[in-house]
Design brief:
Pfam families: Aminotran_1_2 (PF00155)
Subunit structure: Homodimer.
Number of helices: 11
Radius of gyration: 20 Å
Number of domains: 2
Strand order of the largest sheet: 2-1-3-4-5-6
Shape: globular
Distance between the termini: 41 Å
Organism: Negativicoccus succinicivorans DORA_17_25
Strand content: 15-25%
Low-confidence stretches: none
Helix content: 40-55%
Mean pLDDT: 95
Family: Belongs to the class-I pyridoxal-phosphate-dependent aminotransferase family.
GO molecular function: identical protein binding; pyridoxal phosphate binding; transaminase activity
Oligomer: single chain
Largest sheet: 6 strands, mixed
CATH superfamily of the largest domain: Type I PLP-dependent aspartate aminotransferase-like (Major domain)
Length: about 300
């Protein structure tokens, strides 16, 4: 998955270009941009009433399109890291509408990278994947790149296996996508983990194994969903301001000094992660038995810092 993001930044932008993503983002995006001589630019993911911020998204897309030939946007959805947010169908219509407008009125190359790392833990299979239909009949100069990770869906952390899928209406661009990313992958890693690739193929081609795999996956999804539900219910009771959570491994609370909040939580042996915009809690790592009380303690720490 990370390799697909690297290849997209490396092959579809120029030295010094800006790459756009939301202000709540996985920290490696910035590292990947910096390592490739690019800069990460952010738009506000949410409005003040915690809806998809289409206006800010569009303004930043237009600003980038005005100064460079490539417009690369990274959207991590569904089950966004670090908030657990998933774009709705209407969010997708608005976001793609902006990208289509930019592509239609110029010869700019517009690239949408959809990071679906947490897709397999985003909910009902059909519903969570329905957004793919929005990628049909796109302009030729609008390329969609989907980056998938086996780390989450197959719980194979450390094996570093993923997929990079190009979606385009142009056969020529599809061939170019295959050629240049095969070349860059070879030059960067040589080859990826053979055992991981074989695991995916073996399970996918065996109906019995696939059924067993899907049952185990559903069990773990339900476990994470239940943990998050416990936290969100308690957060509502104590009026802790949590960002919209739909599914996934993480949820987040805005804070003006996340390091101070986390330091207070550490005293209770609770270890959330401080981010630039707030505090991230890993519901994938906290058992159901230990979840009760965390929202209350986080609210106390949050209030102590916010009202200092």
């Amino acid at each position: 998955g990370t390799g697909g993001i690297h290849n997209t930044i490396h092959n579809y932008t120029e030295w010094g270009d800006e790459v756009l993503t939301s202000d709540w983002y996985w920290g490696a995006y910035s590292v990947l941009c910096n390592d490739n001589g690019r800069k990460l630019r952010t738009f506000r993911l949410f409005t003040d009433d915690l809806q998809w911020n289409q206006d800010d998204f569009a303004q930043h897309v237009e600003a980038i399109a005005a100064r460079q030939d490539q417009v690369l946007v990274i959207l991590n959805t569904p089950a966004h890291n670090p908030t657990g947010y998933s774009l709705s169908d209407e969010d997708w219509r608005q976001a793609l509408g902006t990208l289509k407008e930019v592509a239609a009125r110029s010869e700019k190359h517009v690239i949408l990278l959809v990071d679906v790392s947490y897709l397999d833990f985003a909910g009902d299979e059909e519903t969570s994947r329905s957004f793919f239909r929005h990628f049909e009949n796109l302009p030729e100069n609008l390329l969609v790149v989907v980056c998938y990770s086996m780390s989450k869906g197959f719980t194979m952390y450390g094996q570093r296996i993923g997929a990079m899928i190009g979606i385009t209406s142009s056969p020529q661009i599809a061939q170019e996508f295959k050629d240049i990313n095969q070349y860059t992958s070879r030059a960067t890693w040589s080859n990826i983990n053979r055992a991981g690739m074989q695991t995916l193929v073996t399970i996918s081609q065996d109906a019995k194994l696939l059924q067993q795999f899907q049952a185990e996956q559903a069990e773990y999804f339900a476990l994470i969903r239940d943990r998050a539900a416990l936290f969100m219910q308690e957060a509502a009771e104590v009026e802790l301001p949590v960002l919209p959570y739909r599914a996934g491994f993480f949820l987040s609370v805005p804070s003006r000094d996340s390091k101070a909040v986390c330091a207070l939580m550490n005293r209770d042996n609770i270890f959330p992660v401080p981010l630039k915009a707030g505090v991230r809690l890993a519901v994938c790592a906290v058992t159901k038995a230990k979840m009760p009380g965390i929202a209350t303690k986080l609210k106390a720490a949050w209030e102590q810092v916010e009202h200092a």
